[in-house]
Amino acid sequence: MGDKIVMYTDGGSRNNPGPAAVGVFIETLRKQYGHFIGDKTNNEAEYEALIFGLKKIKQLVGKKKLKNIEVECYLDSEFVTKQMNHEYKVKEKNLQGLFLQAWNLVLDFGKVTFRHIPREKNIVADKIVNKELDMQEKQTSLL
User: Is residue 71 a part of any domain in this protein?
Assistant: First the structure.
């Protein structure tokens, strides 16, 4: 295998479902991204963060190098981690499409692993999510 990229992702929803955002920290490339994604559930937001992060890596690395890349994904969502590792079935209709999007992205890389970590080990991605949600709240309150 070629290069290894370590990525932390987090998705969060206030009021579940409610205003949601994603946070991505691609540690190896020293890149951080976040954005507001509208009203979603926590699980939808977690998937959206993973998808967003994998797309960003694809963009940054370029299609030609993807098969030589190993991506380690760290998520504080045990639920999404277990679904991506095929330990849990994806029964929820609203998550099936997101799972397929994520899985199709995984196929572009040489190897992708999913690891569950406690929330306190996902500080950067979690901060990005909260910053995005706070900014959205401020904008909404100004309207």
Answer: no
Strands lying side by side in the sheet with 111-116: 31-40, 18-26, 4-13, 70-75, 111-116
Backbone angles phi, psi at 77, to 5 degrees: -95, 105
Could you tell me the CATH number of the domain that includes residue 103? 3.30.420.10
Helix (H, G, I), strand (E, B) or coil at 3: coil
15 within 8 A of 39, measured Cβ to Cβ? no
Q: What is the DSSP letter of 76?
A: S
Residue 26, strand partner residues: 7, 31
Token pair of 28, please? 């190896």
Q: What pTM value is reported for the model? A: 0.96
Higher-pLDDT residue of 88, 2: 88
Give the pLDDT band (50/70/90) at residue 143.
confident
Nearest of 133, 124, 109, 116 to residue 25 by alpha carbon: 124
59 in Cβ contact with 24 (< 8 Å)? no
Range of the domain at 118: 4-59+82-135
